[in-house]
Amino acid sequence: MILRIGFWFGVLLAAVFVAHWGAERLANPLKKLRRQWGITAVAGGTLIGLASASPEIGTNTVSAIQGVSGIGLGNMLGANILSIPLMMTVAYVATRKQNLSDDTSKSEQSSSGRADTAHNNHEQHRHERLLQVNQSAVTVLALPYLGIITLVAILTIPKPWRGLQPIDGTIMFLAYLIYAGQALVRGRQEGESVEWSAKEIGLAVAGVGALAVGAYFTVRATENLASLFGISNVIAGLFITATMSTTPEVFATWAVTRSGQVTSGATGVLTDNAVTMTLAFVPLALVTVTITDFQLYWVNLVFVAVMPIIYSTFLYWSQDESGFARWQVLVFILVYLGYVGVMLFGVLNI
């Protein structure tokens, strides 16, 4: 029994990393498109989100095809609850590095004067225990993401049309196009010339294949773990798949933030979540998912909304320098622990 659990956890971990390896192969081409089209770092997150959320899209697609859509539903909700507290914590810890530049990598700085100013600003933020984030993330990313969550609630909670249905998938696909479109239009600037290599294109194709393989084994491993633990597919998706699927994103957030791209590192989670709640929603809706445990569903959807509400409130009302103080990052953690408590003792009645 223990050996089988260990084996499938190993398969799950390997599958998640294979899927995210594939996603990373897509990330660089999308970054180049952002530069070529003249899209700002904040708005460009909508493109990067396609790569970072592609493992979730793949997992939901496979779970729908395999007839275990509960895994995809649990993963979609659970990952969107855990990701913001986790990534904000990782980004905050990463910015405690003494010689980190201020939201602009050294390669992007045009003069030593700018480099000195960026260094001094970061030292001030580090002393003030502040994770500096561009305030425009509230209107460009966070509030539109909250609009997406509201739309999901309208489509899936009312009793006459409770659940995920094909028409809902069509609506959410259109919602993503609107979300991405408004961010890209509002964040345009002059583009720059970029070069494309055959190797880059080949790796992107290999990445798509890795995503498919990783998604398949993610679902297979979760299905077997749910059976071994004697829990439902939804619960397995909420706490097993969702937790594991955020692991590679932790390393990505750490690397991006440590490189000096603080705003990109701290806002990427919003675009990832927006893609998860729209494009990753589609394959589940196409096969029709019935919500059998309504309390479990609405409680999770409430916490999915609570996280960006806190994010927007803290960032919008930040004082002289926009960002998140250490105590605010701790609030994210406490809210997630509160969610776990509500699930264990209020919903699952353990």
UniProtKB/TrEMBL annotation:
Methyltransferase in keyword set: no
Main location: membrane
Keyword field: Membrane, Transmembrane, Transmembrane helix
Subcellular location: Membrane
Membrane topology: Multi-pass membrane protein
Stretches assigned to the Sodium/calcium exchanger membrane region domain: 9-180, 201-344
GO biological process terms, semicolon-separated: transmembrane transport
UniProt xrefs under Pfam families: Na_Ca_ex (PF01699)
Transmembrane segments: 6-23, 35-53, 73-94, 136-157, 163-180, 201-219, 231-257, 269-291, 297-317, 329-348
Basic and acidic residues bias (residue ranges): 116-126
Matching InterPro entries: NaCa_Exmemb, NCX_ion-bd_dom_sf
Any single Gene Ontology cellular-component annotation: membrane
Region described as Disordered: 101-126
Annotated protein name in UniProt: Sodium/calcium exchanger membrane region domain-containing protein
